Amino acid sequence: xxxxxxxxxxxxxxxxxxxxxxxxxxxxxxxxxxxxxxxxxxxxxxxxxxxxxxxxxxxxxxxxxxxxxxxxxxxxxxxxxxxxxxxxxxxxxxxxxxxxxxxxxxxxxxxxxxxxxxxxxxxxxxxxxxxxxxxxxxxxxxxxxxxxxxxxxxxxxxxxxxxxxxxxxxxxxxxxxxxxxxx
Length: 183
Ligand code: URA
Known about the structure:
By secondary structure, the protein is of the alpha/beta class. It is built from nine helices and five strands; from the N terminus they run ααβααβαβααββαα. It has a five-stranded mixed β-sheet, with helices on both faces. Strand 4 and strand 5 form a beta hairpin. Uracil (URA) binds next to helix 4.
């Protein structure tokens, strides 16, 4: 049977594959259209996302919205998700085991959407696809792997705290918008 984003979201909501399922309020599968050309991937839901069940609705999300607006990108047309779909207590980094257990959901979302561009925001998302590379070296540069096109950048939570990173993130999102309009 054909896999769908709805089916993935339902399975994420009922998932018990790792310990995060015991402490989460709501799982956060991600949101956006099935035909999105751009997919944004973060690290893991934060406290506000855990309450809302929606990705990037907290402080980092508002900063992300600002970046998107300034580059002329419409949030409604993107698919936004994270490497791990449940809130890690006290906002800690997800453990390797949690990332591994959650990964099939992300892979299925990628297979369904087949985005033209995948934006990896921060170390966790970047290392999910390029485990041996250094984000600093590749941020803002197009990367191709397994016939997929990636644009690595910083995580919005870092961009909103450090003015130099904010500037680089703005450049990256402008680059993304220019390319997306051509394609
Ligand atoms: N950070 C993430 O990586 N994902 C969210 O949904 C929110 C904050």
